[in-house]
Amino acid sequence: MNDVYEIISQQADAMGDRLRAVRQDLHTYAEAGWCEIRTSSIIARRLNELGYQVLTGPDVCLAEARMGLPTEEQLEAEYQRALAQGAVQPYAERARGGFTGVIGILDCGEGPTIAMRFDIDALGVFENKDLVHRPSAEGFCSINDGVMHACGHDGHVSIGLGVAEILMNCREQLRGKVKLIFQPAEEGVRGAKSIVEHGHLDDVDYVIGNHMGDSAGQEYQVGLSYGATLATTKLDIFFTGKAAHAGAVPEKGANALLAAATAVLNLQAIPRSSEGDTRINVGTLHAGSGRNVICDRAKLEVEVRGATTEVNRYMEAYARRIAQGAADMHGCGCEIRLMGAAESLQSDPEMVRYCEKVCREKLGLRPTPPGQQADASEDYAYMVNRVRSHGGKGIFFKTLTPCAGQFHSSGFDFREDALCTGVKVFCGMAYSLMREERP
After folding, report:
1. Each residue's pLDDT tens digit, 251-303
2. How far is 84 from 87, CA to CA, in rounded Å?
3. DSSP line for 59-82
4. Contact 66, 34 (CB under 8 A)
C-alpha cells in the first residue's frame, strides 16, 4: 500500500470505538423514514464541525418528489419526540415536516465529482428485548417501540461520518469534489428520488453506495456484484363502497371488502413475464366495521417487483387494471396512491473491477470475486441511473460481516468491526478516483 492508503487504513482502524459508539447511539434512538430528525441533526452538526458545506431541509429533498410521507400529525409528534431525545437545533427545525436528508460537500478544486450515499432510516419493527439479543444485553436496544434499525442503516451512518472525517483529513491529497449524501426513507424506497429530482446528482461523475451484508462465515470482507436489484412499486389501494344493513337490505350497499378480496385473488394471479422475474405481494387488507354491515371502505397495501424496470412497469400496470376492474365489478370507487418506487440497479462492470483492485491491491482487503447476484430492491438505483444518464458510472457494494438474525427481523444485529472496513472502501475509492487512473 502507498502512504495515503496506509493512512486511510490506519485512521479507519483507530476510529473503531467511535464508530461503534455512533452506531449504538443511533440504534438506541431509531427513527423511521421521513422522521429521522434526531439522526439528521446529529449528522449535520458533525459535518459542520468537520468543515463541510452542509445542506439540510428542503435544500436536500424536493418536496413534491417525496413519496410515502407520514401524516402532518405524525411528523410533528416525531419532531417533538426527537427534541426530547436530544435532537440538535437549528438542524432539527430544518428537518421538521419530513425534510430529513443531509448532504456534506467537500470541494478540493479541479477534478471529478464523487457522490456517496448513506441511508439513515430504521424500520417499523419491534426489537427483541431478550438478553440473547446483543443490543438488549448491552443496553442499546431501541427505546422507540415499534421502530428498530433492523437493516444496518445505523451502521451506514456511522461509516458515512467516518468517511467524512478521513476525507477532510486527506483533503490536500484530493482533486475534485465529494458529496456525502445521507438519504432518508430508503425503506419502502421513498427517499432517493426526491434527492435526484432536486438535481444533486446532475454534476456527479461517480456515485458509490453500500449496504451491510452477511458474510455467512466466509473469509470475504467486501461483497462485489454487477447486480441487479429488483425494480419495485409500492401502492396503497383504497376501495370506497356504500354501507347497508347486511340482513335487511344488502342489495342497497356496495361492498368494498368484496372488491378488495376480488382484487387480492386476481393480483396474486397476474401472469408472469417472459422478460424476467416478477414478484407480487398484498401485504395488508384493512376493511369492515361489523359482521352485519356491508363494508364501505377497504385498503390494500401492495407491492410489485420486476427483474428490470420494464418488467416492473408491466406488473404495476396490470395491478392497477385489476384494482380498478375489481372496484367496477362491485360498484365501488377506487383510488391508487404511489407510496414508493425504485428502478432496477446494476453496477457498472468497470467500476466493480476497479473496486476489486482498490480493495485487494491498495487496502489489503478481501473482496468476493465479482459476479451476478439478484437482490431485493434499492432506491439508490435512481442515483446510479441519473449519473449514468450523463455519462457517469456507479457501483453498489456490500460491507460483509457476520450477522445475527435475518435482515428486517426483531433479532437482527451485525458485528461492528465491519464499520472500519466500510470506511476504508469509500475513502480508498474516493482517493483513487480523484488522484489515480480512473475506470
Report:
1. 999 999 999 999 999 999 999 899 999 999 999 999 999 999 999 999 999 99
2. 7
3. GTS-GGG--SPPPHHHHHHHHHHH
4. yes
d(CA 61, CA 255): 40
Q: C-alpha dihedral over 295, 283, 411, 228, to 10 degrees?
A: -170
Q: Which of 393, 381, 308 is nearest to 352 (CA)?
A: 393
Reduced to 3 states (helix: H, G, I; strand: E, B; else coil), residue 56 is strand
- Read off the C-alpha cell for 417: 468491526
Is the separation of the CB atoms in 12 and 5 below 8 Å? no
Q: In this structure, are residues 184 and 121 in contact, taking their beta carbons and an 8 Å threshold?
A: yes
Q: What is the pLDDT of residues 184-242, one digit of tens each?
A: 999 999 999 999 999 999 999 999 999 999 997 778 999 999 877 899 999 999 999 99
| Cβ count within 10 A of residue 331 | 14
DSSP structural state of residue 211: E
Q: Residue 181 and residue 159: Cα distance in Å, rounded?
A: 12
CA dihedral 321, 322, 325, 330 (to 10 degrees): -150
User: β-strand 113-119 against 177-183: which pairing, if any?
Assistant: parallel
Q: Give me the sign of the Cα torsion angle 94, 98, 100, 105.
A: negative
Distance (Å, whole) CA 295 – CA 253: 8
Residues sharing a CB contact under 8 Å with residue 3, sequence separation 6 or more, in sequence order:
none
Output the pTM of the full model.
Answer: 0.95
CA within 13 Å, CB half, 54: 23
Q: How far is CA 422 from CA 164, 259, 383, 401, 428, in A?
A: 12, 48, 20, 10, 10
